[in-house]
Amino acid sequence: MSRVFPFISVDNARKAIDVYKQAFVTEEIGMPTYYKEFYDDPSIANKIAHMTLSIEGSPLFINDAHEQPDTEQSRFTVNVEVESKDKVDKAFRALKKDAKHMYYEPIDLGWSDLGFSLKDQFGVIWMVYVVE
Fold it and tell me: What's the whole-model pTM score?
């Protein structure tokens, strides 16, 4: 079986994981790996090198950005389809805190009864919408 899924790098992966746990139904898959397993650098030893987080049943890989400077430009969006408007509202409440940019708040999208898009505090662009 082939799969395609995102691997995102953020500043402060632990905090991002906590926010995403508030926003969605999640499950940590396996144990995180840490940079100390790959680099002899005490300043990054306990930062996450790889963690798999299931979000609404789909895998998302996440790590602490290492030697990856943050830029204002992002060319990808994480799309999340959920089965209820309540889940859209829950995700919006969690992700909007300290968001870097709001593309649109929860609205009727025409092709979905409710959805939103924003760039979260970690620089990740999300599009979350209901599919009933």
Answer: 0.86
